[in-house]
Write a structure and sequence with these properties.
alpha+beta; six-stranded antiparallel barrel; 23% helix; 4 domains; 13 helices; Thrombin, subunit H; Pdz3 Domain
């Protein structure tokens, strides 16, 4: 009988609500109807609040649309057009002539149709965007926009044009700092990317497809996004659906107040054009990189000394190997420490493989991209408290960050002069004599790193750190790259003029 009353009670509530009564009034009405019939049932009924859903408290005030015109007016003058010119190169290529192959063999001469030709590649031009961050001419853009450029021209929003020079490049974060000689420029206001919320309105300002001063609007669709665009890069992107296309690189991502919150860096597309996902480097990373490039010429990068992955990715990978894997960590969020580097900052602080990092300083860590972003705010020698779980128990440790050399000292970029050598590209006659298609010769050797490593004068460099060396510019580029590496070493492979193969390890660090 009691079950029958419960079913009948539910039906009455449903009928009352369908009839147009509010939830609370319907229940009250049914209660009164049944109270005299079954007091026991009404006293044990399910208790509801005013409604079973949360109603808006702003019933009479509709949501107002966001007005982004003021933000655009504030930010647009600070976004510039960046045009770069990359000089042509002379290259020697193998050329196959089938007629030479046939007639050469017929007349008893020829070399199998294979010939070498020297070609001149034309100068190339590229374009992107930049953001004025100081009224005396400092501009932030992407590393990939200006890297390798022989000439950089900057056009302001009012069409004034200036030649720019590079202050510093950082491939790891894909940021670059350039400067023009001008004053009283419309510098942008720097905002707080950490305060951004998913769903917040933003503007992307840049020069897509050479269409200068273009503004697109969208929302923040994700934060701390890692997309795997580079093997060694720091990735903690702001994801937005504000349209970002080719030419937007280096432009501004601003909030509804016109404050800079990100540097537009890339788009995700299978067609090469915008399809709904754009990515920007947060200013929380940009500020530290820019300050270091301006002050030191290179980034003073703090390293934690661990390698790992998102904890949930680690759990999924282990379950894929073993369906019975059921280890508990005390959390589902955080960074699983897969390896603690020997003599690194984490090892000195007592972290071990299997720990789960959940916070760095006052920053909660739920995934690897957040840990990378949090680490970029520190310099070698600075300290922070790292929070981690070990055997489901929370622990803390004080960590002192180190640089790529494993020290806490300031890293200053060395000039290529420390190698103590003058380099010269092989002439066509030398290539023929040495039976080589490319190479750079140590033309003159003085006291320096090369001589210390045993590299002889007139040695022909073919590869550095497993990269082919065709020009002197290649040597300079690989030298700079090695300075920012953990090994701080040039692994040089080549041949002596007599054809003997040799390899050398050239140490760049004094440590």
């Amino acid at each position: 009988m009691k079950q029958a009353f419960k079913r009948f009670y539910g039906v009455l509530i449903a009928v009352a609500i369908v009839s147009g009564l509010t939830g609370a009034f319907a229940i009250s009405w049914v209660d009164k109807l049944l109270m005299n019939e079954n007091k026991e049932l009404t006293s044990s009924k399910i208790k509801f609040t005013d409604t079973i859903y949360k109603e808006s408290v702003h019933k009479d005030s509709p949501v107002q649309p966001v007005d982004l015109t003021e933000a655009a007016e504030k930010a647009c003058p600070a976004v510039v057009y960046v045009k770069v010119t990359i000089g042509g190169k002379t290259q020697t290529v193998d050329y196959y002539d089938p007629f030479e192959d046939f007639f050469g063999d017929f007349f008893g001469r020829g070399n199998g149709g294979s010939q070498k030709r020297q070609i001149q590649t034309p100068k190339r031009q590229g374009a992107g965007s930049g953001v004025i961050i100081s009224d005396d001419g400092y501009i932030v853009t992407n590393n990939h926009v200006v890297e390798g450029a022989e000439e950089i021209m900057v056009t302001l929003n009012d069409n004034r044009e200036y030649k720019a020079r590079v202050i510093g490049l950082d491939a790891t974060t894909d940021l670059a700092l350039i400067k023009i000689d001008a004053t009283d420029l419309p510098a942008i206001i720097i905002g707080d990317s950490d305060a951004l919320k998913v769903g917040e309105w933003v503007l992307a300002i840049g020069n897509p497809f050479n269409l200068t001063s273009t503004v697109t609007a969208g929302i923040i669709s994700a934060k701390a996004r890692q997309v795997g665009a580079s093997q060694n890069g720091i990735e903690s992107f702001i994801q937005t659906d504000a349209a970002i296309n080719q030419g937007n690189s280096g432009g501004a991502l601003v909030n509804a107040r016109g404050e800079l919150v990100g540097i537009n860096a890339m788009l995700y597309s299978q067609t090469g054009s915008f399809t709904g996902y754009g990515f920007a480097i947060p200013v929380s990373i940009m500020k530290k990189v820019v300050n270091d490039l301006q002050k030191f010429g290179t980034v003073q990068r703090a390293l934690l000394g661990v390698s790992g992955m998102d904890l949930h990715n680690y759990i999924d990978a282990q379950k894929a190997k073993d369906e019975k894997f059921d280890k508990e960590f005390g959390t589902n969020d955080g960074v699983y420490v897969a390896e603690v580097l020997e003599d690194g900052a984490a090892a000195a602080a007592g972290l071990k493989e299997g720990d789960v990092i959940t916070a760095l300083g006052d920053k909660r860590i739920t995934k690897m991209s957040e840990l990378q972003e949090a680490t970029t705010k520190y310099s070698p020698g600075e300290t922070a408290t790292v929070t981690f779980l070990r055997d489901k128990k929370e622990k803390t440790a004080k960590i002192t960050f180190r640089n790529a050399k494993g020290t806490t000292k300031v890293v200053t970029p060395q000039k290529i002069d420390v190698l103590g050598a003058e380099f010269k590209e092989l002439t066509e006659a030398q290539k023929k004599d040495y039976n080589l298609s490319y190479g750079v010769q140590v033309n003159k050797l003085n006291s320096g790193r090369l001589k210390d490593a045993g590299v002889p004068e007139k040695f022909i460099i073919l590869k550095i750190n497993n990269q082919s060396v065709r020009t002197v510019a290649d040597v300079e580029k690989l030298f700079k790259s090695a300075q920012n590496s953990e090994e701080q070493t040039l692994w040089i492979y080549g041949k002596t003029p007599a054809g003997q193969q040799r390899s050398f390890a050239v140490l760049l660090s004094d440590e």
